């Protein structure tokens, strides 16, 4: 049976960079489930479908053909065979994804996709409900946190590199709103799994965080 290590945490707590490096160190595949919600949301926007209609959104997730591929040491996300990685963090996608991710039918279908991917091979999976809902029996659950200010700074730097015209203040404000929306939704709200190990990355580099995780991995007898 495959092992799934879960990493949950809010936006820009370091899940993707830490999760990807950690997975490479232990030889597991890396799956960022936020990318699944983002890929479905992108499809809905590009096809002018209604983001307010749960059944329409659910149909998209029922047929979602999303693939994760490692190319030259970085992860690329494909939708229907097309590389959509660069589009996943466009502001219009980021704006609608919490609305779409809150639909219970969308979450149920997404859960099926995530469980299937994790059952096929050893996986490091990041998201909001991986340790609580998707793989509650995981032998190692990590919960990453960081101060809102440092998370907004990280996100701002990423967006600036992509030449997106946005201020740090706006990034912080929108991030806090999204955190709240993810935490108060009825369908599997974002919360720390009771049995997760919390790592605060505010003052840690990616490498330092991964080192802590490698220690936990060994201590749990998973290596
Ligand atoms: O981690 P991220 O910012 O890429 O996540 C995008 C959105 O998807 C965010 O609103 C939270 C939601 N999400 C979720 O509800 N459950 C997950 N397992 C992963 C992401």
From TrEMBL:
List the GO cellular component terms.
cytoplasm
GO biological process entries: pyrimidine nucleotide metabolic process
Please report the stretch or stretches of sequence annotated as the Cytidylate kinase domain: 5-218
Q: Does the record carry Cytoplasm as a key word?
A: yes
Keywords, comma-separated and alphabetical: ATP-binding, Cytoplasm, Kinase, Nucleotide-binding, Transferase
Q: What is this protein called?
A: Cytidylate kinase
Gene name for this UniProt entry: cmk
Residues at which ATP binds:
9-17
What InterPro entries is this protein classified in?
Cytidylate_kin, Cytidylate_kinase_dom, P-loop_NTPase
């Amino acid at each position: 049976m495959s092992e799934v290590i879960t990493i949950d945490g809010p936006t820009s707590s370091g899940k993707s960079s830490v999760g990807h490096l950690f997975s490479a160190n232990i030889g597991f595949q890396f799956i960022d489930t936020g990318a699944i919600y983002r890929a479905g949301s992108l499809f809905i926007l590009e096809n002018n479908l209604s983001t307010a209609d749960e059944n329409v959104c659910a149909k998209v997730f029922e047929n979602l053909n999303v693939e994760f591929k490692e190319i030259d040491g970085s992860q690329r996300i494909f939708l229907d065979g097309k590389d959509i990685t660069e589009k996943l963090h466009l502001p219009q996608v980021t704006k609608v994804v919490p609305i779409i991710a809150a639909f219970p039918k969308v979450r149920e279908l997404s859960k099926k996709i995530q469980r299937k991917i994790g059952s096929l091979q050893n996986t490091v999976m990041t998201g909001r409900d991986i340790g609580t809902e998707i793989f509650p029996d995981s032998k190692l659950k990590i919960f990453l946190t960081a101060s809102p200010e440092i998370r907004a700074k990280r996100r701002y730097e990423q967006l600036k590199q992509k030449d997106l015209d946005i201020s740090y203040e706006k990034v912080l404000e929108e991030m806090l709103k999204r955190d709240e929306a993810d935490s108060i939704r009825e369908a599997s709200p974002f919360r720390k799994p009771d049995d997760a190990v919390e790592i605060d990355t505010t003052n840690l580099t990616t490498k330092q965080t991964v080192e802590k995780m490698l220690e936990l991995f060994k201590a749990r007898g998973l290596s």
